[in-house]
Every structure is written in C-alpha cells, then in structure tokens.
C-alpha cells in the first residue's frame, strides 16, 4: 500500500487521514538549541518526532496476538497497513476494503456495524537516536479512542483512558536496552457500552428514529469518547465508532529535567497599557535531590536567564515580573476577536539547562487580552441577574458564532483542512465557534482559532441524550488534561460542562474545582442550557428552532422583548449546490428523495415535518420543484433569507435597552456552521468546503457595520459592532418584480453608538405601494463624506398582499456581463470577476464557481470575496477569489462558470483574460419539459 501523507489536503474532496501535529507533550514545536548558545557535544534534548510511517493493524478479537510479541522484531502475519492518526475504518477505506461511505452510500448498509465490537492492535517500528548519558526518552500519545494499553520492546509501558487525554511515558530504561530500533504495540480497547445502529428512514420524517446517541443513549456511559458516532440527527452511525489512534504518536528526548508543563497567564491592566505575565512551570526531575538549574529564554525579543531550584520528582514554580522583568509588557499588542483588531500572539521560548547542557525547551504562543463575561439585566422572573455578555479588551462583543458537532465524521482532519475550515469562519465574519461536547478538541483546532481570532466556547463531554458516564473520575481526568493542555490559547472564551443540561453532580463539582485550580480567570458554565454554579451566569439558552422559519419569525423572537438575550443554538436547513448534491447521492436518488437523502440528514430533527415537509415548504414559497437543479436554486434562496435573519435579528437588537425592549441581544450561535459529513441541513458550507448561499448569508449578516431590514417591523436599522460611533445617510430604493424602481427615500441617521444600533426609518408604507406582490429592497449606508460603508439587498413580500415568492418564476431573466481576469502572484493566483447587470430585470443570486475546464470539477476550497450576487439594473460588483499556487498548477485549465435564479444567456456577455468564463448549463437547466422531481 502507498504510504499516506496525513498532512495532504485534498482540495477537491475529502482527506483520508486525520489528526494534527503536536509538539512535545502537547505544546507547539520547539528548537533544539538553548537560547543564547549551545552546549558542547550532542544535545540531550531532541524535539518531537511524529511516528507516521510503517503502522499496521488488525482486529484483536479471535487472534492469538499479544503485546509483548507485537512489540518485538518477530514477524507477525495478518496485519494490514494502517493510517495513523486515524481509525480502523479510515485504514480500511484507504486499503480499498470499503468505499467512502459518506458519498453515494448509506453508511449502515455499506459497512458492518460489527467494527465497533472488537479491540484493535496497532504496531510500528522506528529508529532510535544514539543515546547519550543522562538523556531521557519519552513516548507521547496525543489522543486515542477509547482505551489503550501500550508496549515497547516487549515491555508493557502503561495505559491511556478516554479520548481526550494525552499519554506521556518515560521509556528511558527500555530504550537503553534496545539496539537502535524500537518496536511499539498498542491495544485499542473497544467501548464498554455500545448498541445497535440507528437506521435512516426518509418516510419517517425524523432522522434515525428521532433518537440521538443510539437507540437508548447508553453510549454516553462510556465517559469521554466520540459519543455522537452512535448516530445523531446530523451524523450517521459510524461503524467503528471512531476507535483508534486519532491523534499523533511521537517521541522526544530530554535531559534529566523535563518541562512537563508551561502555563503562560497574562494579566492585562484595565486601561490596556500594561500586562504582567505569570509563568507557571512544572518540572519532572530524574535527579535524586534538589538541583539548581538555569532557565533561559526570550519574550517579545528580550532574552532572560534565571536560576531556579528544582526538587526531585515533580515540582512546580511560578515566576512573575518581580522575578523576571521580561515578564512585564508595556503597551502590549493585544489579541482581538475577528473583526475587532489583530489577533496578535506573543512567543515565549524557554529552556532549562543543567551542567551547561539543554535538558528541555518549549515554545508557547499566547495572546494578551482581558475578558469580562457579565452584564446586569433585569430578567422577567429573578430580578437583576448577571447575564452572559462578552466584553474583550473593553470592547463589548456581540457574539456571532457557529456550532461544530464534530470536525469530520471519520476523524479525517489533517491540519491544513482544519485551518481552512476555521479560516472560512473568519471570512464569514464570525467571531466564535462552540466546540460542542469537546468533540473537536485538538491543538490544531485551537491554533487555528488563535490565528484567526475566533473565540471558542469549549464544551466538555456530557449530554442530555443519555445517562452520565459510568466512570466520573475518568471523565474528570480527561477534563483536567484538556484544561492543562489548552489553557494557553487566547481563543478559549469559557469552559462548559456539556450540552443542554447539567452533568451528574460529581462532574459539576469536579469541573468547578478544576477551573478554580487550573484556570480561574475563565468563566465556567454548568451546561449550554443553564449555569448552576456558585456564582452563576444567566441569560442564555439553547433550544432552536432547528428548522426553516420565516425571517419574520427570527426578528420577532430577537426583538428585545424575549428572554434570554443569548441564544446558543438556532439553525435551519442549508442545501448545498447542485454539484455537491449529485456528488453525495447515488444517481438513482437525485430526483427521488429516499433513505439516501435521510442518511444525509434531510429530515433534520423532524422540524418542518422532515425532508418531505421541507420540500413542500420550498414549493409553497418559491413554486413547484421541477427537477433537482430547480430544487438546488430555490433552496439557495431559502437558505439565504432564513440564515441571514438568524444573525441580523440579533444585530438589529443589540446594545442598549430601549423602551419596551428590555432584553437587548448579546449573542447567537448558529446550529451548525460546519458539517461533519455531506448534509442537507445545519451548515454554511459543504463537507468538501464549497461555500453555498448560507455562507454568504452569514458573511453579509455579520458585517461589523451593517444596515438591516427588520422583516417583522420593516424598520431599517444601522447596526454598529465597532468601537467608534457610526452615522451618515441611509438611502433606500424599492423595485418591483420586473426591476422597475417605484420608490426611494433616504434618512440622515444620527450616529449609532459603539456596540449599539439605531433605527433609521420604516418601509412599511412605501412597500405597500409596490405594483407587484414582490418587492426588491436595496439599502445603502454612506458616511458623512459620501463613502459607501455597506449595501444590502433583499426580496420581500408586499405587506398589503403577502403571497410568498412563487411569482419570481414569472420575472424576466436577467442579462449580465462577466469580465474575468487571472493575476499570478509568487505563490498564488487571484481571479477577479467584474459582474454587471446590463439588462432591466433584477439579477438575483448570481453564482460563480471556479472549475477545471478539462474535468468539469470544482476547484476547492475557493471562497469568493462575495457570491450569490443581487444586482439591480446597471449595478456592478467586483468579486475576487484567491487560489494557492498548488491549486493553479493542479488544474492548469481554470474557468469561472455562472448560474443564478434566471439568466438571459443570449443577452449576456462573458469575457475572460487568462481564465475561461462560461455558463453553468446543468445548474441553469431548471425548466424541464415535464417535471422529473418526485419529492
């Protein structure tokens, strides 16, 4: 079998190997030389080496294999090549035993569910470095699922329990007896509690029996694992339950003293002018008595040296600016959430020397910021409470976030893919990701959030879908290790016990105690539904809706009259593009919704009466669905109007209280933004990272300065998320169905205060004068100098005769001009498209794709600066997309293709220089002679 590179990012599909590189003991990678110089002779410290090649595996049940034999040079028959990091199923798919079950298949019909019912052996051999006297050798396991027993060179080393804890083992004595070769064997233990799979059923109208977590939810008794793989309303039952070595395995060496942990804890002053850094160091010393060692390192370009006394065994010390002046920062650069400033990170390097030799080193990137969590609000039942409201660096932040259920269904998540997913959240103008039940907790994930300015609501491992864990101590041990491993990341906003309900009381008490001990500056919530701690934070909830509702429904719910003001789960259907629907379903199902659709989550949580109900709702709102292409294009409008309103309804009602509106919005987290598998629901881009209309709905709704049409009141609201007042002129033009302007108005807007909103005017009266039952609304905000700050475009029902949008099919098609160019850079390629409406009809949801002109395949990821464009007659938009040099080289023949609601192809003009520009004929073929869609 060809050795797989887990770092490879498969831009046109999905990656088949998972995980992400961790430095030694879970910290970022380090250099092997001491700051300020190197010791004579070979170094005692060798940085982390990931063991990626040569792994094999086999099911353990029914075999006579043993750890001592596998961890030796003896040949063993029956082992197959393994993907590590990965799961048994990813190895089987890579080896050709099964097709990818998420594409064109029903998972539980394709792969036997018995994969979960066995333990698994893993085996690998690797070369050892030449040992130096005084050198210690360490094995590091970044994460296994579910239980692991480890052997090295015939000797049992230890165990790891739970999916979210690391294993660090001193194997110096074993390695000292080796002859340059190490033989490693790992027994992965199956779940203690498992049950039969949940089956998809389109006809039922609910996803997989209407259950989450398996038929009874018993899988939650296992404690920390990927319990969602038992089956959820957004994830099929995964046959191996994602068992395996899902994070990297590595080795490193140190001298007699190891830096077991480095905790960097900055305190930013109230005026933001200074920061004092506390440095907590934990040592593991092999010396038999206390020794004085030398700490050497640098921070913000300033070097330091400091002697400390280290006790034998494990010990800890804390250093402050009183000990090291380097730890005091004047006018520090700050870490800001996305859209508010640069997410700046400082780099601390620190090494420990003994006898002139470097024993160990660490590099830690950290951010300086201060967070406040509470805002006093008068609640309807409890009087004044501390409501959840986030302020970062004295700037109130309206949380606009997305939930992640799982980074990828089969844990195929190389670092490059994960960074791309988080980058897309940044590009969508989001500022937070909720790591639902901690299912995506990796160093790579938090690194990506740090880099992109994305706050993290970090859940832990409890859910109301089943019983609590049978081993609460194991759960708490995994929680402890997560806090220690990740607390240096500035992106982590808060810790949360779990999903939608309180964990068992021992875990509540244990979590509160762990945060108080290990990370007391961060807030800790009991669950995503309610906080029952000693000093509780109120004013937030889960609860949906999780299905499609009208924009008016969201605006009415978020109008400032309903408690609570922070909503952490609300979502909708989110249908992908025609190309991806065809990719994820077998051809016989394209026009005939069935159980293949159900395995791709089309029933959602049963809202809208499941997939059949959603299809009927689409037809009622936008007209009869004629074929799959027609379903895809109508769904893009359904996506856009509902998902945009989730965020705009909160932005239009944030900030200060108003008469009759005592509960201004403080945050909303969409359920969900990221899909774990190919899906019809709860996402803003596809599993293959194609951004569809939902993505641009989020991007447009979450702009830091926005002008919003409140669908319920028809107020026009200026929303200002920034730290400076924003005012100017709001101009509105109303068009009828045929693209003819029938009204316009403008208002001089008093400045909206920082982190606040102001109402500019109301459009109820002029909209009633529309000569058609649909009106298009263009709104722009210009500053006092005449510079346009933001423009929005909406389609609305005439409030005098609301009748949905079925008459859009009667509108004339739009004529567009698209002129595209390609500009090669040193390491990338930028495509630019100037899109102009050259006709009279409104050009609605004009959609651009980058594709390979030879194969017809989409080039992904390719997130445009804007897409699904809405242009009145004469309006233009410049769209840019940046591709990597590797993408450009791989395709060689790049093109841009165009589709949209209705396009007059003969009257349109397409032109490209260095890039082909064509119409997307399959997506535009929405009017078959006879209806072919059976939904």
From TrEMBL:
This is Beta-mannosidase. The keyword Oxidoreductase does not apply. The lineage of its organism: Bacteria, Bacillati, Actinomycetota, Actinomycetes, Pseudonocardiales. Residues 389-528 form the Glycoside hydrolase family 2 catalytic domain. Keywords: Glycosidase, Hydrolase, Signal. Residues 801-901 form the Exo-beta-D-glucosaminidase Ig-fold domain. PANTHER family: MANNOSYLGLYCOPROTEIN ENDO-BETA-MANNOSIDASE. It comes from Amycolatopsis ultiminotia. InterPro entries: Beta-gal/glucu_dom_sf, Beta-mannosidase-like_N2, EBDG/EBM, Galactose-bd-like_sf, GH, Glyco_hydro_2_cat, Ig-like_fold, Ig-like_GH2. Residues 79-247 form the Beta-mannosidase-like galactose-binding domain. Belongs to the glycosyl hydrolase 2 family. Residues 257-369 form the Glycoside hydrolase family 2 immunoglobulin-like beta-sandwich domain. Residues 1-33 form the signal peptide.
């Amino acid at each position: 079998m060809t050795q797989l590179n887990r770092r490879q990012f498969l831009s046109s599909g999905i990656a088949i190997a998972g995980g992400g590189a961790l430095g030694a003991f879970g910290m970022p990678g380090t250099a092997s030389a001491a700051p300020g110089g190197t010791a004579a002779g070979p170094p005692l410290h060798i940085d982390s080496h990931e063991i990626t090649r040569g792994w094999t595996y086999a099911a353990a049940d029914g075999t006579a294999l043993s750890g001592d034999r596998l961890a030796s040079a003896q040949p063993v028959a029956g082992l197959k090549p393994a993907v590590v990091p990965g799961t048994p199923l990813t190895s089987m798919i890579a080896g050709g035993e099964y097709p990818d079950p998420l594409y064109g298949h029903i998972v539980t019909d394709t792969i036997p569910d018995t994969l979960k019912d066995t333990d698994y052996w893993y085996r690998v051999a690797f070369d050892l470095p030449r040992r130096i006297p005084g050198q210690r050798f360490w094995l590091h396991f970044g994460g296994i699922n579910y239980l692991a027993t480890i052997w090295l060179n015939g000797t049992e080393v230890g165990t790891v329990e739970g999916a979210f804890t690391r294993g660090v083992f001193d194997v110096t004595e074993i390695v000292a007896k080796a002859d340059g070769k190490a033989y490693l064997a790992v027994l992965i233990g199956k779940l203690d509690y498992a049950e039969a799979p949940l089956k998809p059923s389109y006809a039922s109208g609910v996803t997989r029996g209407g259950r989450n977590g398996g038929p009874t939810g018993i899988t939650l008794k296992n404690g920390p694992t990927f319990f969602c793989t038992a089956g959820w309303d957004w994830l099929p039952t995964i046959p191996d339950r994602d068992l395996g070595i899902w994070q990297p395995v590595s080795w490193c060496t140190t001298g007699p003293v190891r830096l077991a942990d480095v905790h960097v804890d900055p305190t930013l002053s109230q005026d933001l002018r200074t920061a004092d850094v506390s440095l907590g160091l934990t040592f593991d010393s092999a010396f038999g008595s206390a020794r004085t060692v030398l700490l050497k390192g640098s921070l913000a370009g300033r070097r330091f040296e400091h002697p400390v006394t280290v006790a034998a065994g494990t010990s800890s010390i804390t250093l402050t600016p009183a000990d090291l002046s380097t730890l005091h920062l004047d006018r520090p650069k700050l870490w800001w959430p996305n859209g508010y400033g640069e997410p700046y990170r400082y780099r601390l390097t620190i090494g420990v020397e003994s006898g002139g030799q470097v024993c160990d080193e660490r590099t830690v990137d950290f951010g300086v910021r201060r967070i406040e969590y509470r805002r006093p609000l008068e609640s309807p039942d409890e009087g004044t409470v501390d409501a959840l409201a986030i302020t970062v660096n004295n700037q109130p932040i309206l949380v606009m976030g997305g939930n992640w259920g799982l980074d990828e269904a089969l844990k195929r998540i190389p670092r490059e893919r994960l960074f791309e997913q988080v980058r897309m959240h940044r590009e969508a103008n989001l500022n937070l990701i909720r790591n639902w039940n901690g299912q995506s907790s990796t160093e790579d994930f938090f690194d990506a959030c740090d880099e992109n300015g994305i706050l993290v609501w970090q859940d832990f491992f409890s859910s109301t879908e089943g019983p609590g864990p049978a081993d609460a101590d194991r759960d708490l041990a995994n929680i402890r290790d997560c806090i220690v491993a990740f607390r240096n990341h500035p992106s982590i906003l808060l810790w949360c016990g779990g999903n939608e309900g309180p964990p068992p009381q021992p875990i509540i008490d244990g979590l509160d105690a762990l945060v108080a001990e290990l990370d007391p500056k961060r807030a800790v919530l009991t669950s995503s539904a309610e906080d029952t701690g000693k000093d509780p934070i109120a004013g937030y909830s889960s609860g949906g809706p999780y299905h499609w509702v009208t924009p008016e429904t969201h605006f009415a719910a978020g109008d400032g009259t309903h408690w609570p003001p922070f909503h952490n789960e609300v979502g909708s259907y989110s249908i992908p593009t025609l190309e991806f629907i065809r990719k994820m379903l077998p051809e016989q199902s394209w026009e005939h919704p069935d159980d293949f659709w159900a395995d791709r989550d089309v029933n959602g949580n049963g809202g809208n009466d499941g997939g059949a109900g959603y299809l009927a709702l689409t037809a009622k709102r936008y007209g009869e669905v004629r074929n799959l292409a027609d379903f895809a294009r109508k769904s893009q409008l359904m996506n856009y109007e509902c998902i945009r309103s989730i965020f705009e309804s909160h932005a239009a009602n944030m900030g200060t209280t108003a008469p009759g509106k005592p509960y201004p919005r403080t945050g909303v987290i969409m359920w969900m933004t990221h899909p774990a598998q190919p899906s019809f629901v709860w996402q803003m881009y596809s599993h293959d990272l194609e951004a569809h209309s939902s993505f641009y709905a989020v991007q447009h709704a979450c702009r830091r300065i926005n002008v919003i049409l409140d669908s319920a009141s028809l107020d026009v609201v200026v929303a200002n998320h920034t730290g400076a007042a924003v005012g100017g002129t709001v101009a509105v033009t109303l068009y009828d169905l045929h693209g003819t302007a029938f009204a316009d108005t403008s208002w001089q807007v008093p400045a909206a205060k920082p982190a606040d909103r102001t109402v500019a005017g109301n459009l109820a009266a002029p909209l009633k004068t529309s000569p058609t039952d649909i009106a298009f609304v263009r709104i722009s905000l210009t500053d006092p100098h005449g510079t346009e700050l933001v423009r929005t475009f909406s389609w609305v029902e005439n409030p005098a005769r609301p009748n949905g949008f079925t008459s859009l099919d009667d509108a004339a098609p739009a004529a567009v001009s698209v002129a595209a160019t390609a500009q090669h850079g040193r390491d990338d390629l930028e495509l630019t498209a100037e899109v102009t409406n050259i006709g009279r009809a409104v050009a609605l949801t004009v959609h651009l794709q980058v594709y390979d002109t030879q194969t017809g395949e989409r080039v992904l990821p390719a997130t445009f600066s804007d897409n699904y464009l809405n242009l009145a007659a004469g309006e233009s938009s410049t769209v840019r997309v940046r591709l990597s040099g590797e993408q450009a080289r791989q395709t060689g023949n790049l093109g841009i293709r165009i589709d949209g609601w209705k396009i007059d192809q003969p009257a349109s003009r397409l032109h490209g220089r260095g890039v082909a520009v064509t119409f997307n004929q399959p997506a535009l073929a929405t009017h078959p002679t006879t209806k072919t869609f059976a939904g």
